[in-house]
UniProtKB/TrEMBL annotation:
Residues 268-278 have a biased composition (Gly residues). Residues 91-138, 263-303 are annotated as: Disordered. This is N-acetyltransferase domain-containing protein. Residues 125-257 form the N-acetyltransferase domain. One of its GO terms (molecular function) is acyltransferase activity, transferring groups other than amino-acyl groups. Residues 279-297 have a biased composition (Basic and acidic residues). Residues 95-106 have a biased composition (Acidic residues). InterPro entries: Acyl_CoA_acyltransferase, GNAT_dom, Trichothecene_AcTrans.
């Protein structure tokens, strides 16, 4: 039996989190393509570890990103990190998004009496804004690519990016007009191979589900084959299938359902709430989930 505790990650957790993530994705075809042997500078997975650490340290300073760890006590090793996740919060209110087709970018001020000219002006403004944004994005991408380390296969990274965009495009209708930038998303989740199947992944995922409920918004996730059962069991729906650098990928979606918060879900995703709470299945109950904000840990006892 393991006592599992969840808390926000801290700077000192970064090396363990990076190691966990590298180990969790070691066999992933996608990661093999992005970090090929031929480009390695340091021995083993050292390049990847350092890259992950730098990325996580930067991420910890980003107020829109949320890093979490799950800890347990290991015999002879003391407290260890057995799982970690990175969540992205919805974009802030001043976010400008291309998908917001209904955005009234000029606040209605340009609308003519019959609406015709106003719509034309709006369209021209919108397309000018889009092309400016596209140029800015291209410049930004160029800068980001130039900053990437030499051991990362840049063309693989671009391909991976394109494939994700394809998957998102395929799923467009499933979003029912909701802007994905206004939803929560789980960027990555990794559980130590020795501690899988005991609820660590669920703890890390439920944290975001509760946040999304509080924000009255949904969640979308690009899932690996290993993540499928985890998200399904928590009530996510698979809305599209694609591949990224040879690895199958699935877009999982969960809309906000008023009155069906993470507190009330049965957690098996079949929608027939049995009223015993999402965290109680399999006899695993969170003992204390208060105080996560102020750094205290949520505890779950897993069989
Ligand atoms: C995916 C991953 C995070 C799951 O973490 P976990 O702690 O093992 O998940 P949980 O114990 O909370 O289990 C969640 C569900 O997945 C199922 N599950 C866990 N391991 C499984 C396995 N090896 N095969 C099939 N199902 C499995 C559990 O049974 C549970 O479903 P249930 O409630 O229907 O029984 C973990 O396997 C992992 O780190 N994989 C490598 C990295 C990765 O692919 N991350 C996902 C990116 S989207």
């Amino acid at each position: 039996m393991h006592s599992l505790r969840l808390r926000p990650a801290r700077d000192e957790d970064v090396p363990a989190m990076a190691a966990l993530e590298v180990a969790a994705f070691l066999d992933s075809p996608m990661h093999k393509a992005m970090f090929p042997q031929r480009l390695r500078i340091k021995p083993g997975v050292q390049d990847q570890l350092e890259w992950n650490m730098a990325r996580m340290r930067k991420g910890l300073a980003d107020p829109n990103l949320h890093y979490l760890v799950v800890l347990t006590d290991a015999p002879g090793r003391g407290e260890i990190i057995v799982g970690c996740a990175e969540w992205s919060a919805p974009a802030k209110d001043d976010y400008n998004d291309d998908d917001d087709d209904d955005d009234d970018i000029d606040g209605g001020g340009m609308r003519d009496r019959d609406g015709t000219e106003g719509v034309g002006v709006r369209r021209r403004r919108r397309s000018r804004r889009k092309s400016e944004e596209e140029q800015e994005r291209a410049r930004d991408l160029e800068l980001r690519m130039a900053r990437l380390p030499p051991f990362l296969d840049k063309s693989a990274l671009l391909d991976a990016n394109d494939e994700v965009m394809e998957l998102i495009e395929k799923s467009k209708d499933a979003f029912r007009g909701q802007n994905r930038h206004r939803m929560w998303t789980l960027n990555s989740i990794s559980v130590d191979g020795d501690y899988r199947g005991i609820g660590v992944g669920k703890m890390l995922t439920r944290w975001g589900m509760e946040r999304a409920d509080r924000d009255r918004t949904g969640i979308w996730i690009i899932s690996s084959p290993l993540g499928l059962q985890l998200y399904r069991s928590l009530g996510f729906t698979q809305v599209a299938e694609g591949s990224r650098l040879g690895e199958p990928q699935y877009l999982m979606l969960k809309f906000y359902e008023p009155g069906v918060g993470a507190e009330h879900r049965n957690g098996n995703g079949n929608g027939n709430g049995n009223g015993n709470g999402g965290r109680q299945e399999d006899g695993k109950g969170i003992e204390d989930e208060k105080g996560i904000e102020d750094g205290k840990a949520a505890k779950v006892v897993a069989a």
